[in-house]
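Example 3.2
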Amino acid sequence: MVRKTLSDEQISAEAHRLLKQFYGYSSFRPLQLDIITAVAHGKDALVLMPTGGGKSVCYQIPAIMNEGCAIVVSPLIALMQDQVDGLIANGIPAASINSLQSDSDNRAIMEQVFAERIKLLYISPERLLTELPRWSQSMPISMIAIDEAHCISQWGHDFRPEYTKLCCIKEYFPNIPVMALTATADKITRSDIVNQLRFGEDAKLFVSTFDRPNIQLQVMPDPGKAQRISTISRLIATHPNDTGIVYCMTRKGVEAMHSELQKRGFKSAAYHAALSTETRHRSQRDFINGEIQVICATVAFGMGIDKSNIRWVVHNNMPSSIEHYYQEIGRAGRDGMPALALMFYSVGDIITLRKFATESGQADINLAKLQRMKEYAESSVCRRRVLLSYFSEPLEHDCLSCDVCSSPPQRYNALIPVQKALSAMLRTNEQVGVSMLVDILRGSQRGDLVAQGFHKIRTYGAGADLSVAQWQHIVLQMVQLGIVDIAYDQGRRLKVTPYGMSLLKSNVPVMMTMAATNATPVRKRASKPAYKNDSLLDHLKKVRLNLARANSLPAYLIFSDRTLSIIASDRPRSYNQFLAVDGVARRKATMYSEIFISAIAEWEKTHPGE
């Protein structure tokens, strides 16, 4: 189709007008306008932008600006529907065609596309590959956007074979600009995406900053199940009106975490691949709509979740790569408000993940990526610097907000406990794993320990003064420092290295970090939470939730937490003042201004002087 020829100045003026009209913002984030301008000029583009960085605006604005319909390739039906609902809420005509809709519904939508009454059409890669041969080259397509583009590359962290077939897009529509978007791709993945999609020689690469300074980064060596649950419980109780995600390595872990949180009275849901499609959809819908406080999930959950008020993400186990980790923590704080990313990790995690990597079809690269993840978890320098350096974005100063910066780890000479552990290993003929070793040192009476006669060795009970968590932390560091090895081919038994042997009768200090002690158990919850729930912002959140339920929409599609906090701070008194708030689009001002202005006045009557 014929593309408008506009100057950069004309594109900028029109893009800014549309941004305010449909999204409520008066200025673009870094790179957004550059990307919009490139696509408006017909260029292919690879866009790397962090989760919450505003990727969708980069193709939605050009879609509105140009004649015809933009085709958006998306991997999940639920994700498509979230995007469509958000666009319609902003007054932008959008739709999706998918297998959950009837053939007649899908045909009706395509008729709307050909009649140029839809600006954005969302479709799965599989469905697109089926439809492409049927579509005429005269079909009014303005551009094609491929979301989650890292799925295209075999080097990507979520490779999907069906995505590689998207290379045929250029065969059918050689003159239509294609935009590939992803939040995570290292250099080799970026190059592979461009080659796979057969981008033109004048294609543009846009790499935004990967820094999300509003997300506080914390890593904690596993303090034990009870304290992990207590820590997560405190996070939920501290953010009663917001939501969080707990990622677990296995389905069993998901179910166990979900059960523990429900026992404590929290509104929780589970999500993993073994659950029925209906159950997964219900859990995701309840999470999006704010009906639950926390979702416990495997990595099967979360791709493209566009929910702005996720205040925290916990990894109950260490992820397998920094790409996975970065994408998952990026689901927190999409509105730019403060958020927390907390990761627990243990020797057991590392053992399991190494096994998975070794058995994968790409053992070398997966083991290398796991090693980088492990180095991040064990870092004694600013975590944000370690994270950003992975994506070739050096940070020249410490962030002063991660756990390493705010509370540098205490170090002590751990030679004596190390010698006790080494002695116990040798006295069992190096036939035990981490759990049995810790139980021997603490003097456990477990049946299999006694049956093997381990209660008779000299170092039995020699470490009873330390907790299970403290011993696990010591053993983890012994592995990290090369004092012991893990024999994966012998049931994960611990083996003393030559370096470890040299320490048995040595006086050389072995400096280790102290085990975390800040995850103290939470007492039984009181009938009324200590959280003060009577601020104007809380009042407006209740108004928003009632509106969302009445309109069958997720609450964040009414207004994000960030926009709502500005409304609470500015307290607009008129339509024009309400429309001037950052994040309030014209359609939403028309629909909701009177409701929120009345709610502010109502709250002020009962809170005079506040």
